[in-house]
Each structure stands twice: as structure tokens, then as C-alpha cells.
Amino acid sequence: MPSLSCLCSMLYLYFLSVVTVSLERKDKCPQKLW
Predict the structure, then answer these.
(1) Which domain of life is it from (predicted)?
(2) Per-residue confidence of the chain (34 residues) as pLDDT tens digits?
(3) pTM of this prediction?
(4) 32: CB partners within 8 A, 6+ apart
């Protein structure tokens, strides 16, 4: 099922981007995030 594979890869990329943004925000202003 190529559609399922595509969906999984999209979710994975989305998760990576969210984690990256969260880490950047934590470095810039940790008091607001935590």
C-alpha cells in the first residue's frame, strides 16, 4: 500500500519538524515553553 507508506513518511517528517521547532523555542525562551 503506497498510500499508507506515504502517509507514514509524512507523519514522520511532521513529527521531526515539530520536535525541531520545539527545541529551538526551548533554547530561545525556555520559560514560555516549560
Answers:
(1) Eukaryota
(2) 568 888 889 999 999 999 888 887 766 665 655 4
(3) 0.56
(4) 25
